[in-house]
């Protein structure tokens, strides 16, 4: 059952708490979604281990917060170096448990690592201020202090990068962490925790609890008074539950939740660029990304040309086991995901849409490989207009004016990412301002990087990850009035 890795120590068997790796006869299996084969068994932890993890993080925090910023930075940098030097193995682990193509997995490892590098640098830039006071014998001084123990709950779609994007700023700020990866993908997270240990990050600073009972572990994380902050990436439904649970102890929260990204092609757009951007942002991770294009709005005048080129480009996407060379689309994560995507397409077709599947993809039945599909003639009455597809299905709607495109794009409770293609500078400013989202891609869809603030508005959540703002959620500002000077 063991994977073929150059560094076999990256494959761990279960939770790490206070530096100790837990083993148990109570285990759960991790399956490769491409083959259905069991790739590992992992110790099944629950509420008791979650509680132990919180207490370990609290103890470790006493020392960690007192380390100089430079020391925390140096340790994060060492972790970053180890992640990069183990990137090939980490990518194999990721593809095996999650399914995304190996090249995408490698890109995720380097993407996640970039957050560790970024926050290693930002650790040295946590600054307070001296503010003018009302009286001449007073000074107002502010300092930034770590919030304390941070709980992080991460999803299966980016098991490495989402963990790195949460743990790195927490550690840079002087916080310690308890984290729970998704049960489908614990292996990448465990490997990351192992490398952190190897980098010299002290025991208890990063604690990882792997288990099948997410509500038991999440219950401890959200209700324990020693946890001061919760950071979550996942569905809006679970985010709402976690927020409710966190209310009793008034935790600081940041929520990176579901999206329903519009992708607008205006009649003055570069159509080839729009098709390329759409392919990249729709089919990344088989469509299982919160910033994936969900609704494609194309101006009536260019709809035929855009759709033709989109269908041609989709036909070229190779589907298969992500470990194989040249594969662009892997399997969906599980049977429930496959069923959800299938039902959305069936509902759209029952209401008058047309589903186009390329000849070369029609054999893809069974298993978890959903054929990349273009759905045309879509309307706002279809379920697919309101729901996050999380699958390789590109749904095309049409519009006839800028106002209509903006109204359609904003007609959703979600507000994570939005994209549009136009060469009219006035329109670029107008539409970018009008879209109710946290992130806008204009004539480009590669919006995610460690230097930019990632996050949403409306029911897509709040808080920003990455960028100079990415530390804010892990810090408290303390104001000190210095009198009698
Ligand atoms: N914004 C995003 O990036 C993501 C959005 N989604 C959206 O959500 C849909 C469903 O995906 P799904 O995997 O169910 O997403 P979830 O929101 O259920 O899972 C995300 C994380 O939350 C954990 N979790 C689930 N329930 C609880 C709970 N009660 N208390 C604490 N933690 C909990 C999960 O653990 P475990 O898996 O171990 O139960 C996982 O670690 C997708 O189709 C997609 O639309 C999904 C993932 C990421
Ligand atoms: O929540 C997600 O779906 C992961 C975000 C991917 C990204 O950072 O681009």
Topology:
Blueprint: E1 16-17, E2 20-21, E3 27-31, E4 38-43, H1 47-64, H2 69-85, H3 87-98, H4 102-122, E5 129-131, E6 139-146, E7 149-153, H5 161-173, E8 176-180, H6 186-198, E9 206-208, H7 214-223, E10 227-233, H8 236-247, E11 252-256, E12 261-265, H9 271-283, E13 293-299, H10 303-315, H11 335-350, E14 354-357, E15 373-376, H12 383-386, E16 393-399, H13 402-410, E17 414-415, E18 417-421, H14 425-434, E19 439-442, E20 457-458, E21 461-462, E22 475-482
Parallel strand pairs: 7-8, 7-10, 8-9, 10-11, 12-13, 12-18, 13-16, 15-16, 18-19
Antiparallel strand pairs: 1-2, 3-4, 5-6, 6-22, 11-21, 14-15, 17-20
Helix pairs in contact: 1-7, 2-4, 2-5, 2-6, 3-4, 3-6, 4-5, 7-8, 9-10
Residues 153-157, 180, 182-183, 214-215, 218, 233-235, 238, 241, 256-258, 290, 337, 388, 390 line the site of NADPH dihydro-nicotinamide-adenine-dinucleotide phosphate.
Short description:
The protein is of the alpha/beta class. Helices cover 37% and strands 21% of the residues.
Structure, described:
The strands form 6 sheets. The protein has a 7-stranded mixed beta sheet with strand order 14-15-16-13-12-18-19, sandwiched between helices. A 6-stranded mixed beta sheet has the order 9-8-7-10-11-21, sandwiched between helices. The protein has 14 helices and 22 strands. Helix 2 (69-85) packs across helix 6 and helix 4 runs parallel beside helix 5. It has helices at 47-64, 69-85, 87-98, 102-122, 161-173, 186-198, 214-223, 236-247, 271-283, 303-315, 335-350, 383-386, 402-410, 425-434, and strands at 16-17, 20-21, 27-31, 38-43, 129-131, 139-146, 149-153, 176-180, 206-208, 227-233, 252-256, 261-265, 293-299, 354-357, 373-376, 393-399, 414-415, 417-421, 439-442, 457-458, 461-462, 475-482. It starts with 15 loop residues before the first strand and ends with a strand. By secondary structure, the chain is of the alpha/beta class. The protein has 2 domains: 8-257 and 460-480, Aldehyde Dehydrogenase, Chain A, domain 1; 261-449, Aldehyde Dehydrogenase, Chain A, domain 2. Glutaric acid binds at residues 157-158, 162, 233, 256, 289-291, 448, 454. Its EC number is 1.2.1.16. This is Succinate semialdehyde dehydrogenase. Residues 21-479 form the Aldehyde dehydrogenase domain. Keywords: Oxidoreductase.
């Amino acid at each position: 059952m063991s994977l073929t890795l150059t560094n076999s120590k990256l494959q761990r068997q279960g939770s790490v708490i206070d530096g100790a790796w837990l083993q148990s006869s109570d285990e759960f299996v991790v399956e490769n979604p491409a083959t259905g084969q069991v790739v590992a068994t992992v110790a099944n932890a629950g509420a008791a281990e979650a509680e132990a993890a919180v207490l370990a993080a609290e103890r470790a925090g006493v020392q960690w917060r007192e380390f100089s910023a430079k020391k925390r930075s140096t340790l994060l940098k060492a972790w970053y170096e180890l992640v990069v030097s183990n990137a090939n193995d980490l990518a194999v682990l990721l593809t095996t448990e999650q399914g995304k193509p190996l090249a995408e997995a490698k890109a995720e490892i380097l993407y996640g690592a970039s957050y560790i590098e970024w926050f290693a640098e930002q650790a040295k830039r946590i600054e307070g201020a001296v503010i003018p006071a009302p009286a001449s014998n007073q000074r107002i001084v502010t300092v930034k202090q770590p919030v304390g123990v941070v709980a992080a709950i991460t999803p299966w779609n980016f098991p490495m990068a989402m963990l790195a994007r949460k743990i790195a700023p927490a550690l840079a700020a002087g916080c310690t962490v308890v984290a729970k990866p998704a049960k489908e993908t614990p292996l990448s997270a465990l490997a990351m925790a192992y490398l952190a240990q190897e980098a010299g990050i002290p025991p208890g600073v990063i604690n990882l609890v792997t288990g099948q009972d997410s509500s038991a572990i999440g219950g401890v994380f959200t209700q324990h008074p020693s946890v001061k902050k919760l950071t979550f990436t996942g569905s809006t439904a679970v985010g709402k539950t976690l927020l409710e649970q966190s209310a009793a102890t008034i935790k600081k929260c940041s929520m990176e939740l579901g999206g329903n990204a519009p992708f607008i092609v205006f009649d003055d757009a570069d159509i080839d660029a729009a098709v390329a951007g759409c392919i990249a942002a729709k089919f990344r991770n088989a469509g299982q990304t919160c910033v994936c294009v969900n609704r494609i709005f194309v101006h009536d005048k260019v709809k035929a040309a855009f759709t033709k080129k989109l269908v041609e480009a989709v036909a070229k996407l190779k589907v298969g086991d992500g470990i194989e060379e040249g594969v662009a689309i892997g399997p969906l994560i599980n049977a429930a995901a496959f069923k959800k995507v299938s039902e959305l397409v069936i509902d759209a077709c029952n209401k008058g849409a047309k589903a186009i599947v390329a000849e070369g993809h029609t054999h893809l039945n069974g298993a978890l490989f959903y054929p990349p599909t273009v759905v045309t003639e879509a309307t706002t009455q279809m379920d697919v207009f309101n729901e996050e597809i999380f699958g390789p299905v590109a749904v095309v709607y049409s519009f006839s004016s800028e106002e209509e495109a903006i109204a359609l794009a904003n007609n959703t409770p979600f507000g994570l990412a939005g994209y549009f293609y136009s060469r009219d500078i006035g329109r670029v400013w107008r539409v970018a301002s009008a879209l109710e989202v946290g992130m806008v891609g204009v004539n480009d869809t590669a919006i995610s990087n460690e230097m930019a603030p990632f996050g949403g508005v409306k029911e897509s959540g709040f808080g920003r990850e990455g960028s100079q703002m990415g530390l804010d959620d892990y810090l408290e500002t303390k104001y000190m009035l210095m009198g009698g000077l």
